[in-house]
Amino acid sequence: MNEIHFFGEDETTVPFEGNEDTYASWLQSIAEEEGKSIESITYIFCSDDYLLEINRQYLNHDFYTDIITFPYQEGDTLESDIFISIDRVKDNANQFGVSFEIELSRVMAHGLLHLIGYDDTTDELTAQMRTKENYYLSKLA
Fold first, then answer.
1. What pTM was computed for the model?
2. Domains and CATH numbers, the chain
3. Percentages of the chain per state (helix, strand, coil), in multiples of 5
4. Where are the alpha helices (DSSP H) in 34-122?
5. Helix (H) or strand (E) holding 97
6. pLDDT at 11 over 90
């Protein structure tokens, strides 16, 4: 099926409306380079409060986060819903001194890399994840 969709939730719009094909192609190329195929991935852009409620309801976590990934199929074929808080991305971009677009792209790639099998539970794995993110960000620019 190879479908990537983008939606805005809770009165949030897709931040790169009109450029969806560019981002979908970029994300598809990440999966392909990593030896995976995408069945269906939906990115849902939302507010902090919206994602906090999902975090509480489904993960029993009571804190803000920039991304939550719900994998429905893993392995060589990927299927998932990925929720991204636009509020967190804006705050993180300011904190890290990067543009909103770069931070948003990093978070989008981060979610996909988790689906592919990368983890960030240790300093070493986090460094590996960051290297992958930077590599794929360079391909978007």
1. 0.94
2. 3-140 (3.40.390.30)
3. 50, 25, 25
4. 48-59, 86-96, 100-116
5. none
6. no
